[in-house]
Predict the 3D structure of the following.
Amino acid sequence: MRQIMGWLAAVTLLGARVALAVAPAGAAEQVFFNGAIYTQDPTQPWAEGFAIVGGTYVAVGSNEAMHALIGPHTRVEDLRGAMVMSGLIDDHVHAVDGALGELFDCLFAADATPAQLAKILRACVARSPSGAWISGGYWASDFFEHHPDLVPRRWLDEISAERPIILRDDTGHNVWVNSAALRRAGISADAADPTGGRFVREAGTRQPNGLALEAAAEKIQAAVTVPTAAQYRRAVAHVQSLAHRFGMIGLKEADAATETIRAYQAADNHGALHLYVAACISTLAMQDKPETVLDVDRIDRIRAQYHSRLVATDFVKIYLDGVPTAARTAAMLEPYLPDADGRRVSGDLHVNPDVLARDVVELDRRGYTIKMHAAGDRAIRVGLDAIAAARQANPDGRLRHELAHAGYIAPVDLPRFAQLNAVAEFSPVIWYPSPIIDAVIEVLGERAKSYWPMRSLLASHAPLAAGSDWPSVVPSMDPWGGIEAMVTRSDPYHASSRTLWPEESIGLADALRIYTLGNAAALRREAQTGSIVSGKSADFIVLDRNLFKIPANQIAKVKVQRTYFEGRQVYQRAPD
Ligand SMILES: [Zn+2]
């Protein structure tokens, strides 16, 4: 009440002058006041309110200054002291795939026992139409290490001998299938391993045992019936409602099939999209061998066909390697610990370094931001080399290419991120809560403990970005656990008290900046969103607590009360 009285006084004194100075055309359409506004504007880090016209902030400042912009038709809102900040962005998510999975797949927890898993799968088989694929996930990367007697294909055949079953692992790179799935995909004992992948065989035979890694997994995946356009439409709507609930106003589809991009574009064209989407055009189906040069003209056609106001298609995904789990497919400078047969492999590159450099130079020249999957330190080095080639060939190039999952970085390569203006992109929610880190430690040993050097990268002025990678590895695209984990380097859901390389933790302000301005830049929208300043789009969230006034290990518990996109409320939390 005192606040309101103060305001009334301020209006009388300042009203006319401020209104004339700031809003000559009249009052604001909306005014929010009495908040703890975390602006991320260095000239005014905190404010009490802001005013909006046409979905854009026109003023940010004190209650008094905002009050001067209230006219007879202004919608005025008292924030009652709530913390407000710019909406978050996820720079690495497979959101439509995750939504299709949530809506239509057979899902189970990564720590499900074989007995629990069998029960879930039998229920899925019973309720899906006959003949249809049973598609699901996500089994833990070290599941078969813990169940060495379980023969993958035969175990699934017991669930169903007729229905094809395909289950993805928690990295999304490898699959587990039954005999019916192998038959549908035309994979027999004679099938050769594709480049960049392998059908694991039963001991002493050529008979596939039901596990298919990397490119071999893709071969089986290609036989799975694709979702219908109607299913894609539902998936986009589901993605958007999840995003808004978590306080997100934008995301980058890290490896988008054309069906995915088309579904976002259709939603945008119908006025139903309230989310910035950047779609990394998938090159998985275009690069069958490490020597294959990308057909950039074909990528250009996809870019031209599917972009819309909110759907940006100037992005491309290239996979340089696999994953540093039991599959041992991330390309490392030093070999993994010996596998069950005593072999010491180092993982393979999916693309020849010279071909990659050529592709990156050409994509950079044509204006694409490239996200390179680079899980191992060798893949990171090769990716940085390719960006260096682009900087040399296109000296005016300003695009910030990304190395995704930049986990293991050789110390000599660390300063190159800042030098090349290359983005190190992280999936911070997986430091410890998920079995995947344990799977990584099992194959890398001590090296696994120097994972994600965020503080060192920040200190070197490297640009950073972050994402969930959902539905790979993590159970949802909730960004708050990732923000907490950047600060604490431990499990944001408190199932484990361990930490991972805590010396590399960063402060809350830095973590929030990565999820807002950092990721906005990664979407090439930093001039438009990511902070609360005049001239930017009013994309903001109202929180139930002030993140700066709670212990760091409570950050993941924050609840988003409301989400606004372009000045319009797109989410309101239901009362408890
Ligand atoms: Zn991913």
Summary: Residues 311 and 434 are 32 Å apart (CA to CA).
